[in-house]
Amino acid sequence: MSTSIITKPKIEIATELLNEIKSQIHEQGQVVLHFILRNSSNFESAIRIWPTSYLYDNQSSHTSELVHAENITMFPVWQVVEPMSTNYFTLIFSGLPKSCLSFDFVEDCKGSPGAWSLKNIKRNESDVYFLKIA
């Protein structure tokens, strides 16, 4: 599976909900990663996120911890992904330092195969990112 950043996603979110999320992000200094996962095979697959998933600041030794996961199960529970379906999930991390220009997303699976990682994500003003897993 490959992961890529989506620069101009086509997502419709209710205006009220979007404004509420934006205000919470700015108040709490959180980083939000929205994922789109497409299972393009004819077979079921399964996903989960490890609580040991982090954002690593490339300009310092700072590590942001996962504080919330939405629409994805946490290790050890697996979530079924139906054949030919698209799943959406969100990960929220503690804030990055203001000096951070880019960061890495790394799922530390304690040596288990299939960990997700994405290197050198360029920081933006909103700290909200859209990522596609294919």
Describe the structure.
The structure is a single chain. Strand 4 and strand 5 form a beta hairpin. The radius of gyration is 15 Å and the shape is globular. Strands 1-10-2-7-5-4-8-9 form an eight-stranded mixed β-sheet, with no helix packed on it. Strands 3-6 form a two-stranded antiparallel ribbon. With 134 residues, it is mainly β. Helices cover 10% and strands 43% of the residues. The chain has one helix and ten strands. The protein has a single domain, classed as Jelly Rolls (Sandwich), CATH 2.60.120.
> How many extended strands?
10
Helix share of residues?
A: 10-25%
The computed structural class is mainly beta
The percentage of residues in β strands lies in 35-45%
Q: What is the CATH level 1 assignment? A: Mainly Beta
Q: Note the overall shape.
A: globular
In total, the number of domains comes to 1
Mean pLDDT reading: 87
Terminal residue distance: 6 Å
Low-confidence stretches: none
Largest sheet: 8 strands, mixed
Helix and strand run: EHEEEEEEEEE
CATH architecture: Sandwich
Secondary structure tally, helices: 1
Q: What would you report as the Rg, rounded to the nearest angstrom?
A: 15 Å
Fill in the CATH topology.
Jelly Rolls
